[in-house]
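Hey L., structure's done. Input below.
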Amino acid sequence: MKPAPYRCCVATLALLLAFAGAVSRAMEPVRVSEDGKGFVLKPSGKRFVPWGHNYACNGLEHGGRIDWVRVAADFDDLRGMGANVARIHLQVPHFMDGPDRANPEAHAELKRLLKLAEKKGVYLDVTGLASYDVHRRATWYDSLPDGERWKAQERFWEAIANTCAKSPAVFCYDLANEPTATGKRPEGWYMGRMGDFEFCQRLTLDQPDRPGDDIFREWTKRMIASVRKHEKTRMITLGMLPFPGPAYEAAGRQLDFISPHLYPKSGKVAEEIAMLRRFDIGKPIVIEETFPLSCGVEDERGFLLQSRGIAAGWIGQYPSDRPGELRELKRAGRINIGQSMYLGWIELFEQLGPEMTADIVGRPVRQ
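Output:
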């Protein structure tokens, strides 16, 4: 048996090595690279290529009960297929009880999700100001005039940034999903309906004649300032419809990177690449939404491969069924058309991952 002082030193050394290992495995913040063309981890300086999915399988989407066992399994699947980012969509009616009152239970859920993301090694693209479900809207929120609605949005972002500020799992904050500048009161705040969900929103209803670039410039400045009250360096972006122009550029000049949503159409990959190029204002581009929705897998493959060198990251769509379940349905001959589309995307994502995240000499980036 070794002497007590020896055992003590060995035990101390083991603890120090364990602590050092834990620190080395900690998630590093993601920042724009010095050349402004992509992303790196800080302080290590390792290149980071966002490669992931929009993730809508948690209760934060609609204020429902969260199945934490399922979420943990999904994050394992994400890592298993090579993903490093999950985009989540936070709903105003769930996170705010009023114009200036955050919902503490919802923010506690978000903290738990952040901890899970840290444990699994998945970065979160935290998209906010959502109100997708037509059956779960907040009357108090949608009845506000433009000025008061913007103030409520500022308070939303201040509260979210305060909740997320200490977590290394935040990849970025996305200020809103696919906003447009103006509309009229009879049109309402939302558009882009698919079933019971509307994924786009208008920033103003009371200023139909105000220039769109002026609206986006002021609104973006105010939302960024709200985030920066608690988050001084984390990246900020905005989910953009495929309509590049002065309004989005006015917002983009204030953002850390640009996030267009692009779904190529069959036989029109070249047109989609041309659209992607129009979003280039000298900042990194992450294609924050893409999927073979209006094309086959081979056109989507061509779009992704041809977008390299223009885009610096890609985020697709995670299915409501786990990938293993989809494969089992296919083997059993019970897979439907929608599930088959998702399985085709998942298989493409897994196949292309090493190539899409490769460095300039063709080696997969260690992330």
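The two ends are 43 Å apart (CA to CA). Residues 140 and 315 are 33 Å apart (CA to CA).

-- N.
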